[in-house]
Protein 1
Amino acid sequence: MNLRNIAAVPLLLAAAGAGATGVAVQVQDTSGKVLPDAVVYIEGDGIPARAAPREAQIEQKGLKFLPLVTVVQTGATIQFPNNDKVRHHIYSFSPAHKFDQKLYSGQQATPQVFDKAGTVVLGCNIHDKMIAYVRVVDTPYFARTDGAGAARIELPKEGRYTVKVWHYNAAGGGTAEEAVTVKAGAEPATAVFKLAMKPPVAGDPSGL
């Protein structure tokens, strides 16, 4: 369930700048608790593609993948530096990008190109509790919600767009979406999403 164009949401208005063209998004669970690390992205006719997707980095530090959630455009390269004092063996069995990076330390891991849209779950063959998520999207307009569950995406022009939201812990693993109208020179369009979450699991790195 989600709501849109709720101009009275204080958190969104505080983050939104007057006169800009874009969308301000708030993501919560069904009880109203804000959800950090939700992936927000925008699709629509006429969105120009960037010449080259932005490169990203997921480090291993403190026996964790940092960040827990990464979002990149299709075709982006991700670096995997190991900043721990122990070696790691990272892998993914996800259909969107299967790979197996043998034991390594430091900067030795081969960068991976994520050339197919979808969700990629990362693990470590040596440290079972290590997990991270990569969401690969077919648009250059995306963001990840902050600690307040908020995200802001600037757009190149006014128009009718579809805002999509994905969270790794959402029940059913699906993507919520809502249509918004963005007007040039006006307050940003706003959208509030309420997502049903999976039941809490002991040891979940999200703390949900």
Note: Residues 1-19 have pLDDT under 50 and may be disordered.
Protein 2
Amino acid sequence: MKLVLGSGSPRRLELLAQLGVVPDDIRPPDIDETPLRAELPRPYCQRMAREKAQAVPAADDEIVLVADTTVALGRRILGKPADAGEAAAFLYAMSGRRHRVVTALAVKRGDQLWQRDVVTAVKMKHLSDAEVNGYLATGDWQGKAGGYGIQGPAGAFVPWLQGSYSAVMGLPLAETATLLMAAGWPLWQDREAVA
């Protein structure tokens, strides 16, 4: 049995390593991530995970793990910013307010699909122009939902969260472990002995 990570995210690879899991292959799916008209953040995120799982080609003896992370400000979806200007707009919109980070998981084995999602409430402190501009200059905002990564310099902007820190990073560890085991991955066993 082989594990395929359907994501090019180095953070997801690091988080899997915390579980002692090293994927046999990495196959990032190429899908259209445009939200549907009036689509809400949580259903959008669930749909993205499902579509990513379906888009990753896999053999019958392969388990595919994918995830999608979305930042939700009320009913608004804050995806990956197109440029620094959009990243700044996202940061100013979240400044001094709470937002939600939704991470949806999907695990596929053959025709079976297991899904879970985790919603974490995050409070961002009031941001000064110097903080926003300084953060944008790091480039850390690139490729990150909402324009920030909690595990990087923007961690200094988050005094409080309720939920899963690893989910805000992009992969909720408890739920990932549960889904991998449901699909038959020998998480807490010696893989060589099981093979």
Note: The helical segments are 10-18, 41-55, 84-94, 129-138, 165-169, 173-182, 191-194.
